[in-house]
Every structure is written in C-alpha cells, then in structure tokens.
Amino acid sequence: MKLLLFIALALVWPARCSFAQDLHLAKHAPLSIGDTVPDISFMLWKKSIPAKLSDYTGKLVILDFWATWCGSCIRMFPKSDSLENQYKGQVIFLLVNSIRSTQDSARQLTNFFQRWQKMNGQQFALRTAVNDTTAFKLFPHIFLPHYVWISGDRKVLAITGFEAITATNIRKALSGKILKEPIKGDRYDRDN
Fold first, then answer.
1. Which residues constitute the domain of residue 6?
2. Over its length of 192 residues, how does the chain's per-residue pLDDT go in tens digits?
3. Which residues of 33-54 are buried (b: 16+ CB within 10 A; e: fewer)?
C-alpha cells in the first residue's frame, strides 16, 4: 500500500511543480492592448518609497520606459512634464527605469539627477520608478523610449513610441479610446 502511495505521489509531484511554474509565468506574461494591468508596485526615486499602480486609479497613466544614456528619452522629459501639468490631476507620467533593459546603476541614476538639477536649476519633477523588473516583463521592449498608456481602470490603451505623446492623443485616451497609433513593434518577449 505504501509503495502504491509513493508511486502515485511520484507521478503527481512533477505535474504539480510544472503547473506552479506555469502559473508563475502567466503572472508575468506580456500584455497587449485591451488587457488589464495588474497592480504593479514600484520604488520611487526621490522619496525611496513604494508606489502601486492602484495609487493612480481614475487617472491616465503613461509608463515611460527610459535610461540615463537615452538622448531621445531625456529630450521628452520637458514635454511629458508640460503635458502632465496641462492635464493636472488627470494624467500621470511615470518614468520607469528597468534594470534589465538599461543596466543603469544607482550611481548612474544619482549622477543623472544631480546633473539635471545643476543644468536646470531645479529638481527633477517627474515621478521616477527605479530598479523595475515587473513592468518590463509585462511590457517587454528593445528600443527606448517605450510608452505604455494605461486607462484609469488599468486597461492597456496603447503601446507607442515618442511620436504619440501629444495633447490630442491624451484627450482621446482620457475618454477611454484605444489609440489608433501603431503598436510599437520591438517586442522583446520572443526570446524570454
């Protein structure tokens, strides 16, 4: 009887482990337009405090994946800041620095923000999440900048490049419309 129980457990155990791994992978499966985004947690740079996507419920959130070495990303910061101020209380730009895609160290980030303050005479204003791994898994990409538009009820409205960051598109997204912009086609998930 013990032998039969042992054999049954031996047969079931690998299936159980495989199923658990599938659930873990599904938890971070890449998302597309129309999908619901889980309540991602981020560590914000300036305050070193955690924030969750649900902290911005009811607002349009634009995840802006960037790196300290990405000139195109950095040139967009003033425009993003201006649009966030124009739509104050309705739009949040959340800059995301992902470890896997940027290789930016804490020292590089500190140096970047210090240079920004010195050059602009003010602290960096946009919310910045650092050391991200989860958002990158949900929205894999190769090229930067990379923008993910998320509605107030956490639905993916668009995945775009910098050209789509306009007041007209923000108004469309605020009304819940999926943007007609082409989906950015540099998906990184094919080899993950």
1. 1-29
2. 544 433 443 443 433 333 333 333 345 689 999 999 999 999 998 777 899 999 999 999 999 999 999 999 999 999 999 999 999 999 999 999 987 778 898 889 999 999 999 999 988 899 999 989 899 999 999 999 999 999 999 999 999 999 999 999 999 999 988 887 667 777 554 444
3. eeeebeebebeebeeeeebebe
Is 132 in the same domain as 162? yes
Q: Which residues have CB under 8 Å from 9's CB, separation 6+?
A: none
Residue 134 and residue 80 share a domain: yes
Stated pTM of the model: 0.82
Rounded Cα distance, 175 and 42, in Å: 26
140 in the same domain as 59: yes
3-state secondary structure 78-93: HHHHHHHHHCCCCEEE
Say if residues 66 and 104 touch (Cβ distance below 8 Å): no
